[in-house]
């Protein structure tokens, strides 16, 4: 008998999720997991927002079916996504919004669409970027290259290097991946003036922006975090946006996202929508209901929306305070991490090298990504001194 699967090699563990498995197996009582991008409260738990529970009560009382959604998802959810992300920047008739299983699903749908409809396109990815970005595009068969994002100090944006790469190396028709806010893994975002320059070069080179917008509300605020995206959209006629509600609604396991396409006119929007539906149909067919119903319920109710914004603001403020506490505690230990205060969102590049990261793991049970990326939102006030002592000991 032929055993075909006996020759299948074992894949290497995921660079980030694999750390979680190692963390779970670690018996160190003082262990900390600062690798995976989830928000944790002061007890170390990933909470369910009160507004999510309130929305679920409404859904429980009013839901009448568990039937399939349409290929592009819930109409009221799509309307709310369009309003939250785009505001009044783009005519609604030019925008197609399709519900997706998380931001990862949205990125894969966008990549598959580009491969099918823009066969000569290459996508330019910032270096560094989220570890899963290159894998998603490679799996879809979308050629990619990188542009410089950080300066030599690894703590600030190299705007000149970024723009030079796009001007001199990208070809008209290529796509460029941008982080809409709270850059993962660095926390380094362009300023409003930087966004203007980026938008000008994208328009000048006729590039297609693909904007990964996974952290709206975690940087400076819900509307403030959309400013860069909207600056880009004011400069171009076409774009794609991948949205996630994992972080800002705490709906990690519900897989709630959307892929949006902005076209030059309604006819192009409609044709592109039909092709995006084909991509989805042969992938997961139609999206899940529950998480999208939560988001739609909250954003369609003014009181629930206000409550959500308050809870989101509380998470954002707490992350900022954790940054400040870490910087202050490290300053007391004779180490300057002040550059972290300029960074935004859940993540920061700590400057720790792979050897130091490994020592934190092996000697202290502290897990961060090999690049030195720290999930600031995973820090816990009561363990800050323990964490800072460990970091100081490996520097």
Written overview of the protein:
With 395 residues, the protein is α/β, with parallel strands linked by helices. The protein folds into two domains: 12-48 and 304-394, Aspartate Aminotransferase, domain 1 (Alpha-Beta Complex), CATH 3.90.1150; 68-300, Aspartate Aminotransferase, domain 2, CATH 3.40.640.10. Helices cover 43% and strands 12% of the residues. It is built from 13 helices and eleven strands. A seven-stranded mixed sheet has the order 2-8-7-6-5-3-4, with helices on both faces. A two-stranded parallel ribbon has the order 1-10. Helix 3 (75-86) crosses helix 10. The longest helix is centred in the last third of the chain and has 31 residues, at 302-332. The protein is globular. It starts with 16 loop residues before the first helix and ends with a helix. The mean pLDDT is 94.
Helix/strand-derived category reads alpha/beta
Largest sheet: 7 strands, mixed
- Taken in chain order, the helices and strands follow as HEHHEHEHEHEHEHEEHHHEHEEH
Which CATH top level class of the largest domain fits? Answer: Alpha Beta
Low-confidence stretches: none
CATH-derived architecture of the largest domain:
3-Layer(aba) Sandwich
**What distance separates the N and C termini?**
56 Å
Strand content: 5-15%
CATH superfamily label of the largest domain: Type I PLP-dependent aspartate aminotransferase-like (Major domain)
Number of distinct helices:
13
**Mean pLDDT over the full residue set:** 94
Considering DSSP H and I runs of 4 or more, what fraction of the residues is helical? 40-55%
Radius of gyration: 21 Å
Count the beta strands. 11
Could you say which overall geometry the principal axes of the C-alpha atoms support? globular
The strand order across the widest sheet is 2-8-7-6-5-3-4
Overall tally of domains: 2
Task: Give me the CATH fold name of the largest domain.
Answer: Aspartate Aminotransferase, domain 2
């Amino acid at each position: 008998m032929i055993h075909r699967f006996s020759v299948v090699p074992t894949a290497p563990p995921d660079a980030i999720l694999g750390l979680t498995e190692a963390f779970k197996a670690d018996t160190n009582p003082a262990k900390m997991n600062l690798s995976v991008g989830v928000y944790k409260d002061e007890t170390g738990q990933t909470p369910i927002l009160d507004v999510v529970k309130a929305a679920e009560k409404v859904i429980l009382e009013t839901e009448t079916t568990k039937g399939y959604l349409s290929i592009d998802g819930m109409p009221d959810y799509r309307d709310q996504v369009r309003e939250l992300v785009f505001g009044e920047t783009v005519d609604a008739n030019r925008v197609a919004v399709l519900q997706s299983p998380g931001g990862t699903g949205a990125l894969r749908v966008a990549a598959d669409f580009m491969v099918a409809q823009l066969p000569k396109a290459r996508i330019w990815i910032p270096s560094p970027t989220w570890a899963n970005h290159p894998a998603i595009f490679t799996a879809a068969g979308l050629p990619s290259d990188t542009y410089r994002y950080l300066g030599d100090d690894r703590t600030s944006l190299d705007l000149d290097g970024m723009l030079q790469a796009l001007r001199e190396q990208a070809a008209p028709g290529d796509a460029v991946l941008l982080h809409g806010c709270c850059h993962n893994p660095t926390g380094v975002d362009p300023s409003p003036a930087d966004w203007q320059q980026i938008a000008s070069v994208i328009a000048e080179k006729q590039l297609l922006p693909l904007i990964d917008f996974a952290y709206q509300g975690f940087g400076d605020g819900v509307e403030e975090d959309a400013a860069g995206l909207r600056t880009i959209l004011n400069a171009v006629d076409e774009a794609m946006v991948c949205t996630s509600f994992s972080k800002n609604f705490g709906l990690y396991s519900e897989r709630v996202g959307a892929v949006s396409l902005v076209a030059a006119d309604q006819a192009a929007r409609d044709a592109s929508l039909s092709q995006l539906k084909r991509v989805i149909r042969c992938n997961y067919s139609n999206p899940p209901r529950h998480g999208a119903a939560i988001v739609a319920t909250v954003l369609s109710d003014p009181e629930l929306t206000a409550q959500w914004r308050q809870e989101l603001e509380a998470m954002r403020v707490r992350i900022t305070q954790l940054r400040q506490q870490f910087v202050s505690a490290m300053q007391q230990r004779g180490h300057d991490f002040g550059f972290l205060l300029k960074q935004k969102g859940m993540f920061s590049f700590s400057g720790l090298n792979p050897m130091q990261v490994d020592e934190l793991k092996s000697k202290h049970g502290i897990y961060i990504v090999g690049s030195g990326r720290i999930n600031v939102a995973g820090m816990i006030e009561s363990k800050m001194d323990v964490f800072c002592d460990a970091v100081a000991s490996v520097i």
